[in-house]
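Q: I'm writing up a methods section and want to include an example of the input and output format. Could you take the sequence below and give the corresponding predicted structure tokens, formatted cleanly so I can copy it straight into the document?
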Amino acid sequence: MAGTVKHSHLKSSWRCPSNIALVKYWGKRDFQKPMNPSLSFVLQNAYTETSVELHKDGDQKVEFYFEGVESAFGERIEQFLDYISVRLNWVHKYNFRIHSRNSFPHSAGIASSASSFGALALCLTELDFSWSGKPVESPEFWQMASEIARMGSGSACRSVYPGFSIWGKTQLFESCSDDFAVPILGGINPVFYGLQDAILMVDAGTKEVSSSVGHRMMDKHVYQHSRIAQAHENINALYLALLTGNQKKFVEVVENEALSLHAMMMTSNPSFILLKPNSLELIQRIRRFREKSGIPVCFTIDAGPNIHMLYFQENELDVKAFIERELLVFCENGKWIDDRIGKGPEVKSLPQHPPHEGAK
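A: Here is the clean output for your methods example:
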């Protein structure tokens, strides 16, 4: 019996990046499935490192430590484990000790839930695959990790791949799914692999309205159907821009998506506004700089006030001078985060072999 095994001790550790959506998903249906497809890329410097240790000592429990301090987030992890127990029926046979840390401030305008659940899903999937003898580097591994991550946080399903990925059914690829994200493999113009992301910190405080609450407001939104149609149109246009190297179209679609996301928030019932005066000032200055310099720089925004300014590697010196000269005065305490498109998750350690009854 599983309960008779003494001192079994198993561990897996992964580093998983956050991601920034260029075509936004807003609104959920069923369980953690998107109303519309989204397209994103992972970051390089903004990541979560998570280790999962399994043991059978004492009563079943989940201990979650964030940056060395035990956190109430463990309750959300317990709910998550209940959800995924249908896929991973061994999770209720172990106690969990989870350690996690971020490379970025918790309220930095970066999707910490994406990197956190992405890293956790990778740990759990690695354990499951290694126990069953399946190859960890197979496409099935990444697909399963993406699906499990989605059950914790929708956007997390896009964090388990390098570069660009798509989540949600579209006409672009038959493999696109609402259950997991798929990577965009090949065909992208090399200029987009030099994408840089300057995250301009307008306000590091907690959001007034959580993303979960915002998603629910799309259920009866007056513009719901129009927004879904717009997202499909924009994902087609953006994918074509990525293939052809069309920077002008890239800028147009990315900014349209960012403003559409916040338009949905401002026209929901009840409505809410997450942008701050300095957010709007940064947007205006970025557009003015692009118009005067001819440099293809643009902005995107997640569900918060902080601005992600996207630009290309070839323009790095000019853009960073612009940041120092004009933008930092509108950032909280002059803070910004220098990031870029990333290479995806990284395994930090290999798990030990489990007892035979560990995974069925």
